[in-house]
């Protein structure tokens, strides 16, 4: 007993101390410090106090392994149990320090490699031993207890120092055996830092290997482990705390590993994911909770009842190159990743399908922020209050999966999207509700293409949609619902003026079928629509300036010929307008011009692309305060060739508002007047046939103004020509044209026609009057007088009567008449008339006439002159022939008559008197007989240099205006 006690109390502790030191130094090359080893051979206990193993590194104060106390209590009942039996095994304050080098090896591995000494003999022994199957020793522990343990791991293998600390570690295992089927109950508690812990309890056995129980891990800093897996992801986990809890059962029997989990929960808290290239994270998730989950490895199924995701904050940024910035890292990562294509036959081996199911996926109170840097000014759209759910998911993807999605866009109300989804083959049956989505969210994109600023407006939609993917027909589907755009208002950013707007635009209902594409709309209702048409100071229409010119100088690529799809069938039963307004302004005029059309009401009915009949148009409104406008007719814009038969009527429009145009184009302001305009355009087979009527009531021009663009025409004369006695101008303006002609321009057709009519009127006014009176121009624009005469015949009187009636009907017209006198021919005529009157030869024979003429000639010229005249005539006769007395007598009488005519004293005054007689007879016919106002007839200074045509000379009429 003394020797036993001496060996147990004194020698054995020293032997154990040396053995531990030698073994550590032999295998690791490290030094071991042991304060004290106590052995009680009678109580069969072993106690080691303050053991520390230290590396031989200079300045290294860490101990890879240390503890303050190890105690083992061996039981004599081992003889009865047939196994090494321990009552208690206690380890107090164990501390483990592991250093992981850049190459991935630990300090322990390096120490083993450096100090390993293996002889060939040992290798043979090891080989011999390896041939003998190892048998686990029979051990029985009543209680194993680890108190206040700690683990420190410093990892340099990922390019940066990663330190892991686990403290305190508590572990308790009761009734554990290595040779009986039942295992021991255990409980493991780890403190992994601030608010991080692990609790693991249950039963464990090693013969066979089996364990069951539960574990609960809280607050694990998952982002601390991200360096180990970041090589497999293009993104970076900046922060995430994980909780795990489950009941489990595992075993390894007959070389088959079995594992089941139930009531398993995984919770991720405060997760942040970022692009390594950016300092800010793009995903922030408050909480992800997965569970309860059932898992069975043998039966190969996992069933998740719920996945709850709370408060997702996702920031999507589209870069200036048009790509999502987060995808750039993914693309670079994918391109740099090694190929994983399987080439071996094992890749083609079929594995049994793993069954999975998820009862519900819910997303709650989430936000999506979209920032687009690819547009000028940067677009930003925020979706918030996002809640979504998806149910009944499993590996087949062929069952119906109910889903719902609700969200708000900027200041909108709650929007909903719900229904049922089948993933394979794709099928979707859904209800869509959009509630007052602000339209101005598209402003940055609209500004890229058009100079339009959306000031207000919101979109609402309510409908049902069905989509399905057919292998042969492609995507098929329908939509049935209504669309509303309310309080819409927009501005032209070039002129900074209001452009388009309405109080409400309703499309109810609308039915769309995708295959073939058909659109059926019952009614498009516009409540208080507004449009503004402006001609700018540089004479450009504001609508023509809306499109933004592309800055690209590249030539457009030639489009390849593609198979044209059939045109969609469109049916619109009715387009209605209620209390519409339109405004027109011309800023290029001085003063600037503006007018408005109010109270536009009416409808277009029966628009269709499949029907040949045209739609009916009936729209009415008012211009300014009392004027009226009406649009009626038929139109078919969907036909292959445009067809219209439209009438547009403007009634009682105040013309004073058009003064700026009158000043520019006519050179006068408008003093008063009202306009009635009837326009009728019929377009069929590419041909235009227009019938227009212009009525101006009491139209008066005011003062003249300077304008370089005014037409060089006597405008007042034109107005006087057209205006009747009641002050009304009524003009028909036909227009025709071929729309297929490249020279055809539909704009300004009425103005062109009016200009042509006015030009023709002022250049040929009597032609216009003749057409109105049903006569010819020649009969109205002149009177032909016989030479030396001031009398007119009945036909001429009738012509003057016709002219008088036209003048009476047009009191603004002034007739100017200029009498022409042919001084030479008419003086001769007057001399002849005076001689005939003086001789009075009407009742005398030939001899008496000759005697009277000789007597008158002798009185004027003398007897000698008479004889000389007669001798000269005889001398002129042919001497070879005998003089015919009768013929000579006639010649003598004619010569005598001619001489007497010349001798008649006719003064210029007599020619003027003839002209005045002609003026008097014309004015008498017009004024006295046919009641033309004396103020309308003016005689111009007679012309004595006129030229007769044949035996007549014309008195020419001209027209002017007051």
Automatic annotation (TrEMBL):
The keyword Coiled coil applies. The keyword Coiled coil applies. Keywords: Coiled coil. It holds the Pfam family DUF748. Residues 836-886 form a coiled coil. This is ATPase. It comes from Psychromonas marina. The lineage of its organism: Bacteria, Pseudomonadati, Pseudomonadota, Gammaproteobacteria, Alteromonadales.
